[in-house]
Amino acid sequence: MLDERSIKVLWAVINSYINNPDPVGSRYVTRKYSLEFSPATIRNIMADLEELGFLSQPHTSAGRVPTDKGYRFYVENLMDENVCCHKGLIDSLTRRLEDLREDIYTLLDETTRTLSIHSHYLGIAVSPGPDGSTLRRIELIPYSDDRIAVILFTNEGIIKHKILKNNFSFSRNDLNKIARYLNREFSGYTIKEIRQRLLEEMAKDKELCDTLISQALSLCGDVMSCYGANVFISGLTEILELPEFSDIEKIKEISRTIEDKHAVIKLIDSLADAEGVQVVIGAENRVEEMKTLSIITSTYKEGDKPAGVVGIIGPTRMDYSSAISLVDVTARFLTEILDEGGHEWRKGR
Amino acid sequence: MLDERSIKVLWAVINSYINNPDPVGSRYVTRKYSLEFSPATIRNIMADLEELGFLSQPHTSAGRVPTDKGYRFYVENLMDENVCCHKGLIDSLTRRLEDLREDIYTLLDETTRTLSIHSHYLGIAVSPGPDGSTLRRIELIPYSDDRIAVILFTNEGIIKHKILKNNFSFSRNDLNKIARYLNREFSGYTIKEIRQRLLEEMAKDKELCDTLISQALSLCGDVMSCYGANVFISGLTEILELPEFSDIEKIKEISRTIEDKHAVIKLIDSLADAEGVQVVIGAENRVEEMKTLSIITSTYKEGDKPAGVVGIIGPTRMDYSSAISLVDVTARFLTEILDEGGHEWRKGR
DNA sequence: TATTAGCACTCTAAGCTAATGAGTGCTAAA
DNA sequence: TTTAGCACTCATTAGCTTAGAGTGCTAATA
């Protein structure tokens, strides 16, 4: 599709633009990348690349700037894949996350911080949602006369808790009985599966009319229903340093995006199924406010089930090769941590 | 100190400036506030007020702008105190926080959101720290072969949990015994008190050499040590709409402030002891990056002990009367909620 | 035929000037 | 004591010019 010369020029333009957000001129390309052609020739090639949609001109007498299509081509064909010396990242991940292995929320929060510091873009992480979390155990503890605390332990070390008001007042003994029942029935399943089974069981239960069990099921349902994915984002300070965010309107957009965590979950969820690192460039994105941003994500796993997502959000003019490998490394790191935390449990299951 | 005329003028200037961040001119004051003097007279008065430090001029031929001292005088003497029609706020607090009574973290998070929406400034909340939290009960639950989950229930409905690796492997029975011991010893005390007593007990324990108990104490200490206050801030989108934040540098400052939660805790802590609503205006603040911001806080209580802090951060040009009553109402509301959640427990104590 | 040198042309960014106007301080009159 | 009048200051804006970077086209060159 593109001859070697065009590719060289395209690469040069994108590479230069990633390092410095000034439109790239023909003269500059020949000089800086010491190509064996004159500026005039480069101009012709650039004109061709523009016609093909890989480059564009902000105005007639300016240099060229990559388009989304240009970046896409770059990511898929031209990128330097061997940016693997993330010693620094691994070090700081290890250092920061060491003590947090068992509390995945703090862990993810710290992860986003580490990602943003190393990438200078926004770091983002989504905790396992109902599909990704496996129930390990459920505990019921009396809290006050008419309230009980329901505590869910999951495989990822998440502990979800809720204090529920209940009409019947259970003895500690009752609670133990209920808990034992629930554990027997549900532990080892994902939250999503449990929700489904709860519906079935509760339908069945209408016939059984066992108050204790039906109470148990409804308790369980209450907690499950508020079990959602959680988003962590950090690095606002980092991206404010980028020249593309010197415009107030742009900043407002970003801030709206960040504060609306609901929208972020939705966005990320659509990328969660795919294997490996996902790259969405600029207008490929569906969300209006992110059409000038790129997002790179990868899923971390718990066992072999995808659990949650980590990633980076930055301008389309992003250092893709570095960002992609950062995300990749981080996702693998998290997967490993979850593995260590959970293996003795999976063995016993 | 100030005659009635000067006060009228000062009030007019501040009132006008709060509504619209343009330097206020003498002509404008006579017109808008229909004072019985000519612009020339007003000018004289303004010159006096400037000399006294209540007003200042951005440049020679501009109108006047209130100084921090001016705002301080306004807040203490001139403010309209009867801005109590916070029906909307109470409604939305009630609606949003209804389901969250027992999870104070989510509760505070939602509170900041509500505060920011109603004030159009940053909403801020700090959860009870070790001084404010009273231990209600402690539970120990086996998590895996070599780990146990320690769960703290506090009076504010906070549940703090940590999963600890321990060298000895305790039976469920052992754990129950330990838990009973810890509850007998420590429930009803604040976290801070417990930390102190732990130190004493552990010193004593050297003589006793009771492994189970000493293990219990060390477990307890581990969890206690990570018990800190938690900050919630929201409303970035709101304050970005204000004209004072049209400058990128200002935004960077704010974003640094927001992301450094540690600094915020420190700042807020210094205000936590005082009774009622606290107002810190501009450079009265110690933190360099907040010298152009004002902060309004109030403590919410649990029983009669101060628990945590809620507040608003905005520009010095802030609608103080509305902001102050917003914060006041919100703090009372939280206190009430905590009271409802906890009273049956305190009865029994 | 592919490449390149040369040149006229385009467009932005930066700097300069002048005009505008809001607001002041001072003085002298009421 | 208050106020009208007036000269003065200074930020803001618009208009204009210049410099410079980069282009596209054409004609010469290898």
CATH-defined superfamily of the largest domain in chain A = GAF domain
Instruction: Please bin the fraction of helical residues of chain A.
Output: 40-55%
Query: What is the CATH C-level name of the largest domain in chain A?
Result: Alpha Beta
Write down the secondary-structure element order of chain A.
HHHEEHHHEEEEHHHEHHHEEEH
Largest interface: A-B, 32 and 31 residues
The span between the termini of chain A is: 54 Å
The total number of structural domains of chain A is 3
Kindly report the oligomeric state of this protein.
homodimer
The general outline of chain A is: elongated
Structural class by sheet pairing and helices of chain A: alpha+beta
The low-confidence parts of chain A are: 343-349
Q: Could you tell me the strand content of chain A as a percent range?
A: 15-25%
Provide the residue-averaged pLDDT of chain A.
87
Output the CATH topology of the largest domain in chain A.
Beta-Lactamase
How large, in whole angstroms, is the Cα Rg of chain A? 26 Å
Tell me what the CATH architecture of the largest domain in chain A is: 2-Layer Sandwich
> How many DSSP-defined strands of chain A?
10
How large is the count of helical segments of chain A?
13
Strand order, main sheet of chain A: write it out: 7-3-10-9-8
